Input
Amino acid sequence: MTYNQSYQIQDKIRVVAGLFICPYCQESFRALAYHTRQVHNTTGRELRLKFGLPLNYSLQTPELKELRRQQALKNKMDKQLEKAGVKTRFKQGFKQSKEMIKAISRGHTISSRRIE
Output
C-alpha cells in the first residue's frame, strides 16, 4: 500500500527519509508496529485505530517488506509451510459427516472423537 500523505500529516504518523517516526518517542523505525508493541505496549491494530488509519495500512517500509520477502524465498519458507501444513489438510476422498460440517462452520476444532 502506498503511503498516503493526508494520513501522515493529519494523524501524526510521519514518514521521514523512508522511516516511520514513532508518535510516542519521535524515534525513527523501519517497522513501527514492532517497536510500539515492544516499547509502548501498543499493537499495530491499536495504533491504526487510535490514529484513524485503515486496518490494512502498512506500518513497515517497502524496503523492509522486500527484504523479508527475499529472506523467506532464500530460506524456502513456502516449502516449509507446505510441509508443515500437510498434517492439517483433508485427504482426497475424505467424507465429512453432516455433524462435522456443521461444527466446522461454527468454528469448532475437529478431532477423531464424535462431536456432540
